[in-house]
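Thread: TldD/PmbA family protein, structure

OP (GT): Posting the sequence first so everyone is looking at the same thing. Length is 448 residues per the record. Can we get the C-alpha cells written out before standup tomorrow? I want them in the notebook alongside the other entries.
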Amino acid sequence: MLSPAQAQERCQALIERAMRAGADAGDVVYLANSSESVSVRLGKLEDVERSESENVSLRVFVGGASASIGSTDMGDAALDELAARAVAMARLAPADKYAGLAPEELLFRGTPPALDLDDGRETAPQELRRIAEETEDAARAVPGVTNSEGGSAGSGRGVVALVTSHGFAGAYAASSHSISASVIAGEGDAMQRDYCWRSAHHAADLLSPAEIGRRAATRTVARLNPGRVKSGAYPVVFDPRVGGSLIGHLLGAISGSAIARRASFLLEKDGAQIFDPSITITEDPLRPRGLRSRPFDGEGLAVAPRNLVENGRLTGWLMDSAAARQLGGTPTGHASRGGGGAPHIAAGNVVLQPGSAAPAALMADIADGIYVTELIGMGVNGVTGDYSRGASGYRIVNGEIAGPIAEFTVAGNLIDMFAALVPANDLDIHRGIDVPTLRIDGMSVAGD
C-alpha cells in the first residue's frame, strides 16, 4: 500500500497520461486497504484473516462522453495502457450532458483539516487474539449463555487519494479498529442470539473487550422465551441500535440522484416541515475521529457541517455535480467514490439531536407498546415511503419494558413516521448515523 503522498503522485501521473492520450478532462481515485482480524470460538482459535487491496480508477471525458477503467497495477507501463484504453472507450460511449467534473471554482483549496483519522497503530495478531478471547470470555461468563458464535478483533488501515485534471489533488490515511462478540442462550428451538460490535478509527475510542462481551451476552439472555404480540396499532419505541436506519431512509430520499430520477417519497418537499419543529438532524463530516469524516468529497469539493433538518424542515438535497446539473443547483460536497466509475452521494457523521426526556420518561405513559431492538428484511419503498419490516424486541407495559417478543412486523409510512417521531435524551455518538431512543405512536404491528 502506498503512502498518501505516493498515492497522490501515482494519481497525478495517470491523469497526465490520460490528458496526453486525448482526454478532455478526467479524475483518478486511488483506494487501498489492509486489514487483519482474529476470531475465537469457545476459547479456541477459529480464524485468522488478512486482506490487502489496492486499486486505481481513471475516469475520462471525451466529447461529452465518459468512460471509467481501473487497475491494481501501479507501474508506468500499466498506467500508459490504462490511459489509452479509457480514452478509446470514451470515444465509443454515448454523450451525457450531465456528466463532468465538479465546477473548478468550487474545488477545495488550502490546507486539509486535521481530522485525526489515523492513530498510527498496527495491532499484532497475538494482541488481536488476546482481545478476541477476552471479549468472548466475558460474554460466556454471563449466566444463561449456552454457546458462542465467537469473539473477534480486527485492525486495519486505508489510504484515499484523488487528483483531477482541473487542479485538485489530495490524499489522506485512516486507521480502523473493531471488536465484536455474538453468543447464544437457551437450547434447541428456544435458542436466542444477539451481539455487540464497535468500530473506531482509534483503538482508544473502543469500549473495552469485557464490556462488549458483557453487552452481547446480556442482550442475548434477555431475549429468552419470547412471546407473541397481538396485531394492532401501538406506540413503537426504537432502540438506538436500529433507530438510525430510519434516518438512513431519509438520506436516501434526499439524495439528489433520487430526486432527479423522481424516485423519492420526499419529492417536491424541499423546505417542507416533515418532522416536529423540535427536531434537528445534523451532519458533520469534519468531526475529528468521526467514522465518516473526510477532508474533501469524492469530486475534490470542500465538505462542511450543516443541518439536514432544522426546526423540523428539510434544508435541501444532497448533490454531487451530476445531480446538481440535473436539478439546476450547486453541488453540496456529498460525492463519494468507490472502486471505480462515477461518484455516488453519501453523507457523513449524521446525528439526530437528542430530546429532553430520558428513555424511561419517554415511555412512561405507554400502557401497551412495543420496544424494537432488531429489524429484519428490507420492506421499505423509497418511492412511496411505505415501511414494513420484521422485528423483535420487548413489550412495553405500563411504562416499563416487559418480556421479550418476536416474529412480528412493524409498518407505516415514513412521512407519517417522521411527523410523529419523538427523540429521547440518550444520544451516544459512535456510528456513522447516530440517534437516541426514538418513539413513534400509531404504528401498525402485525403479530398473532
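GT: Both are above now. Quick notes for whoever picks this up: The mean pLDDT is 96. The two ends are 55 Å apart (CA to CA).
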